[in-house]
Every structure is written in C-alpha cells, then in structure tokens.
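Morning. Coffee machine broken again, so started the prediction first thing and wrote up yesterday's gels while waiting. Chain of 808 residues, entered below exactly as on the submission form.
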Amino acid sequence: MTSVAVDLRHAARIVARSPGFTALAVAILATGIGAATVMFSLVQAVLLRTLPFDDPERVVWMYNLRTERDRAPLSIPDFEDYRREASTVSGLAVFTNWGANLTGDGPPERIEGVRVSGDFFQVLGARAFSGRLLAVADEVSETQTTVLTHGLWVRRFGADPRIVGRSVALNGVNHVVVGVLPPGFVFPFRDAEVAVPMSIRTDPRRTDRGANFLRAIARLAPGVTLSQAKSELNAIARRLQTRYPDENARKTGISLYPLHGEIVRDYKAILWTLLAAVGVLLAVACGNLANLLLVRAAGRLTELAVRVSLGATTVRLFRQLLAESAVIAAAGGVLGTALAAFALDAWRAWGPSNFPRMSEVTLSSEGWLFACTLSCLTALVCGGLPAWYATRDLRDLREGFTRTATAGGRHGRSQRAFVAIQVAAATVLLVGMALAARGFARLDGVSTGFEPGQALSLQLSLPPRTYANREALVRFFEALRDRLADIPGVERAGAVSLLPLSGLLSTMDIAFPDRPAAAPGDVPQAHFRVATPEYFAAAGIAVLEGRSFTDLDRAEGQPVAIVSRTFESRHWPGESGVGKFVQIVQAKPSPPILVVGVVNDVKHVAVDAPSTADLYVPLHQMPPSQAALLAARTYWVVRARLDSAALARSVADAVAHVDPGVAASSVRTLSEVRSASLAPRRLNVQLLEWFGDVAIVLCGLGVYSITAFAARMRRRELAIRAALGASRRQLALAMMARELTPVLLGTALGVSIALLSAPALFGTPFETDPRDVFVYLVVAIGMLALGSVATYLPVRHAGKANPVEILQ
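Came back before lunch.
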C-alpha cells in the first residue's frame, strides 16, 4: 500500500505539471461519466427500481381485449365473473380515475385521485406509512374515508403527524383520513394523490354488462406465470362471450401487463434508447482520453528511456503511468458525479411533469457506485493501453534517444485505430440523433385539428352531490359562460367533456336508423363528446360543413349532433354527413339524432395517433348517464386577447365567483397542451442532440490531437522531403491522405453498424425509415468534413515550419 501511495503522489505531481492537458482530459472524462451516471440514475429510478409492494413482480394490470383495442376497461358483472371463476390469480381489485376539489386548510385545490375497491391495497401488497390503508369494510361504512399520498401530505398539510383521524373536504364531503401512503408509492394513474373507497355492490351500473368503466389489477397466484393466468382468463372470456353474445361480442379475451411496465410505459423505450446513446458517448470519450494519453506517453519516450537507463523496470514504469491515469480518472469521476447530481436536481425541478416516479430521481448509492465503477474501468482501459504500449519494448526505451521511429510508428497505428473507433461510435450516435430529429420534425408538423393561438384551457371537477343531474350542470355552465364573457378581451369561451390530446377515451356504441342492426361483434363505435355551442370557435376547430351548436339546441328540441370528418368518411363515404341520422346505443338505441355539422378531425389520444370518429352532442341534450362523468371532469377553453397569466387569474376568479368550492386546475394554453403531448419525444430528441454535439466535439478533438502528434513526429521526414524538392501542397496532401484514412474507415464502420442496429437502438421515428439513405449520407459527409477540418489545421501549421531549422 505504501508503494501505491508513493506512485499516486508522484503521479499527482506529474499531472499537475501539465495543467492544460490535465484540464482537457478531466473535462472529457467528466462529460462522459456525468452523462452516463445521469442516464443510469434515471433508468434505475424508473425502470429498475421495483414498486414498494410485496412481491411486485406478481402484480399485473388487467384489461379487456377487444376487437378494436387491447387495453379496454371491464364492466362490474364481467369483473365479478372473473373474480369468482379465476384460480390463477390470488386477488382481483378495481379502480377508476377520479377528480376532487380539496377545500379547507388553504385555497380550494383540484387534485387527481382514484376510487378503489376495498381490497385494492391488499391486492397491491402495499403498506401504510402512517395509520392504515382502505379495507373492504370502508366500502359500506357510513363514514367517508380516504388515504393520502406522502407527497400530498407533505405539500398540503405540512407533514402534520396528526393528520390521521382528521377530516378533509373532498368535493364538499368530509372524509376521514385513515392513513398516509409511503414515499415512493405510485398509483396506476401516476398523478393520483388521494384514494377513496368505491362500492361496486351499490353502483347503479352493477347489472349492466355493457357499462365498461372499471380498471383492474390482479395478483398472480404463487407459482403461476403470466401466460398461464392469461390462458385461464381468456377461457373465461370465451365462456362469457358465449353466455352474453350481445354485450360481450367484441370482448375477445384478457390482456395482462406487469403493473410496473404499464406505469412507465410512456418513457420505457426512450430511457433505454438514451442509455444506449450515452454508452456510445462514453465510448467516444474513453477513446479520446486513450488517444490523449497515447500522445502524451509517446512524447515522453526520452524521459522514460532515461529512467530505464537509471534502473527503472518495465513494471515500475507501467505502474507509474497507470497511476497517472488513475489520478486523472479520479478527478474526472468526482467532477462527473458532481455534474450528475446537479443535473438530476435540475431534472426534478424542470423535467417533464408527467415523468414517472420523479421524486425518486436522485443520485442514489447505486448511482455513486456506478460512477466509481466507471472511473475505475476508465482508468484501467484508457490508461492501461497507453501504458502498455509505452513500456512493452524495453529495448526501444533504452535506445529512446536515437530510436523512436519504431515506437512512434507503433503508437501512430494504435492512435489511428482509436480514431477509427471514435469516429465509428460518433457516427452511430449522429445517425440516431438525425433520425430522431427528422421524425420529430415531421411529428411536430402534424395538424392537431385545433388552433392554439391565444386560447387557455382549464379543468374543473364539480361536487357530484351538488351537480348530480343535467339541469344543475347546465345552470353552472351557463353561469360560468356569462361570467367568462364579461372578462375584458375574452372572445369565446366553451366547454367540452374531454379536451384534445388529453389521452382519455370515451366511446359509445352507435347505430343508424336507416340501416339494419349490426351483428353484435360489428356494432360501430364513436368517440363521444359533450360540447357547448362556443366550444368549437374557442378551440379553433373548423366547421367544415353545416353549422355549430346554438343555444336553440335544447333538451325539448330535435336531437342534434356534430361529427368529425373521419366519422363522415367512414359511415357515409363520398357523401355529406349533414342531414343524416345517427343513434347512440346504451341499453337501447336513442331517438334518431340529426347531424347538423361536420368539423375537422382532432387529435385526442396523441399527435401521432390515427384520427378518430368523433361524435359531439350539445350540453342540453347529453344522455342523463353522462351527468356524473361530466361533473367529475370538464374542460373549458377560453380564447382572448390577453396575456395568458392575466387571463388565468381572471378565469380562476370567475370560477370561484360562480362556486367557491370549485377549483380550476391544469390551467394551460392550448400551445402548452400540444407541447406537453410531445414532451417525451422532444426530450428524446433534445438529449440525443446534446449527446451528438458532445460526440462531435470529442471526435474533432481526437482527430486533431492525433494529426498534430503525427505531424510533430514526422517533422524531420517532412523537412528532408521538402529539401529534396517536395512542395508544401504535396506534403500537406500526403499527410492528410494518411491521417484521413482512419476517419474514412471509422465513418464506413459507423454507417454499417448503424444500418444494422438503428431499428433496435433508436426505434422507428415518426414516418421516418430507420435506414433513410439521406440521413446516412448527410451524417457521413458531416463526419468527413469534420475529419478534414481537424486534420487540415495541424497539417497547415506543420507546413509553415522552416526545413533548414528542423534539419539543423
């Protein structure tokens, strides 16, 4: 240990004598280690860290598999049948999303929540941080109960240890807090902060097999695999389809997905892609550092030869050079880890709001260990190879004063090999960056069907006891509309049941009175929306044919509807939909509804999702069954000639004036709504672009340093050739041809690797071929241009030297 300490102290002194070289090497290494540590921490927190449940790998999200989609909710009767007949699952529980106005202890606040069956937390295998969790008895208890997430408890109630047993008002109803969930707990709906019991035994839809609104989780029985459980549940689904051919015609089976995978599904592919990209970046950084150390070692052959002549052994010299690499790697690792910690703090503050498990994104002990391991490996790989090359031929070192050509040539070949590897790695990363950027540019240009402009959106959740029917909802909507219209600068204000790009679904079976009834398995569906007359103008959704809704479309008048362009082309191809009739099918078909207008297609699920067949009905004519859903979640859009911040304050005041117990939430401009829907893709592209830019800089430095070293090693040769009549231009071309060879080889290798691995590494960007010839051509030309510039600069400098002075 004493000799190691001596080596490290001596190495630190030697490294300190070259501050420029040391700063460059440490910066390169810190960049690579910092970026890799950040991505590892994100992957570890989101994808690798298990959920805080008992045996979380056995908990799955259970969906209906339907003919039109593979992730559909269940009905109460179906759920009861699965729970009664399935033996491969030890527990089944259900939940639905829910919104509530939290009042008291501060200003009203709208929060996201879930309604859960009493056995929900038992099936999850969750434990309480404080108090207890909901139980089956809470479903029928006269006392309303709730549990809070740890984050809500800290944020809203200041981590008050006396919270258990207190009452909080949710939608105007007092709920007793029975427990607080532990830190790190995450609901299947990631934004949920509160849970209340749901009793399916008293739900009015408990006998309606066609009312599919329940989300379900299941816990696999011990020793049961996912495929075994799915096989049994599919058999039950087929039996239910046979027993109930009308209601279950399109329910073809059950989909099971690990719960953790479903929670992080939006970011899973992106994080693995970025981790692969940062691995490439780290390879470029390591190759660059190895090259710099090779250059430095080759420049010290004379010093090393003297030390050999004075009795130093090859092992001693190797150990000394490795110690110098270790000092640089340690400094780079410390700086890189500090940069990673800062970047993760910034990520929690400014990262995407819907990023899963954001509170757990920290530099954990695993992250520190990862950074330390990277530093050690870098010291061994990047320092060991140059040290081995510098000391492997003791005779060369003993004759180092006069015989450096052999070592220089050997080092030159090694350095050019590193350059080729660097260029290849950078080429792969740049191809991924270019593909992602090209796909995102095309995605960003897709029309969403609405005009953001100066429009503000907000979400409301109305207390269900106060707004239990259509008439109460109409009174609130009209009062708020009038209040919003009085705000100076407001042009339009309208409401809709689901906002574009909300990612939420609401579908209805439909029929056509002039056509025979469809077979049970072929009943068409429409994406159902309730809208006020001003909504389309407020959201900037163009009316293509016919008219919009008016205040004359009342409950007692002719039922009317507006359909989207896709709805029209799907059901009346080549004809106008205006004047046609459609029916909504629930327990039975509704009276014929007259289509009075056709509007532009609107993206509801995602920007890259296909257009949907949308059916809008006016507020006054909505089905009574929709009242509870509309009260739970309503969106308003206000278009005004006002600053968005000032408009948001005025809108919040208007909502509070109409009903002080209702809080406005998710207040965003439509531009922000659109931007948020693209956030995961934008994040992927931005980080890949940053990694690509760093790779370009590192690659350019690597080519420049090797060319500069080669030019310095060949100064005498160039001087002799110049004395024999070679022109500077001939010498420069000869040098560039030699030094550009590894750049050409590396580019060709990188392009080949990218062609083979791009689909696996970077996926298939939106409407972009992962083997797009144009992208590969641009990247190849760019890398060759970079190599040419990085080669030309040191060659040009070497050409200015005076041959007479060099030969003397």
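DSSP finds 24 helices and 21 strands in the chain. Going to sketch it on the whiteboard this afternoon.
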